[in-house]
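This part of the workshop introduces the protein records we will be handling. Backbone structure tokens are a discrete shorthand for how the chain folds in space. Once this layout is familiar, the rest of the handout is easier to follow. The record below serves as our worked example for the rest of this section.
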Amino acid sequence: MQNNQGILLESGTNELEIIEFGIGHNRFGINVMKVREIIQPVPITKVPQSHQQISGIIELRGEVLPVIDLADSLGFPPSSNPEQDKFMVTEFNQQKIVFHVHSVAQIHRISWEQIEKPSEMYQGANGQVIGVIKLNNEMVLLLDFEKIAVDINPKTGIHLQQIQKLGMVSDRANKRLVIAEDSPLLRSLLHETLTEAGFQELEFFENGKDAIQYLESIVSQGKAIEDEVQLMITDIEMPQMDGHHLTKRVKDDPTLAKLPVVIFSSLITDSLLHKGELVGADAQVSKPQINELILLIDQLAL
């Protein structure tokens, strides 16, 4: 499966396409937008003293890429049928990573409304699943690939040190920001870093649906949105309503259109920037560039 850009959906439809793949007898999913291609396994060069979940490195078209054994990362046994194994070449958070999986099934087109948030009862706050999808009498688990990568290399995540060189801006405390982010870990990190930068009025929502309802409730009271909220930050991948659809809803509504929207996502790549532009985003920043995000807030939140 190469050059999947041709099957990507129109921006703002609140739909996504996932690639279903297998680890053992379990079915998992990954957003098509994260996958560059799927290849047959190739010989791996071992790297001494690397993380235990890093199988090694491969060379692909002149690039040296790390290979993560996804079964090991999830605590599953090795493949029982290696001839069916596949390598998924992914790109997110401005990095390319190869994931070793046991099988690849098919592509499904679904709505974000079909994705249920996993319960902390069975996965806990630090789980690696961001959504549960019921397909063909089976459950497909949508994995948090960003968390898997950060767990292996914490330097790829958001850190307070990234904003310490920016200095303080006096009026940040008076800016109310709305943040739509489904990951509990990212919400916590964003709260910590934005507060450290001087922002005090922060409204967090787990998905785009809750965020748009909050914004619409403000204008339904006869208030001007620009007087109540100065900027919205949104992830792209969220259950119920994704960030592209949320942005489109805001920009298509005359009562909300003045609100600056910054998309802050691991899916901000050169080949996907146009999707955010089509729905009217004022700016787009790739995770984990929190310093760039804060500079944009200072420019746009007037």
In short: The domain at 4-154 is CATH 2.40.50.180 (OB fold (Dihydrolipoamide Acetyltransferase, E2P)). Residues 184-196 form the longest helix (13 residues).
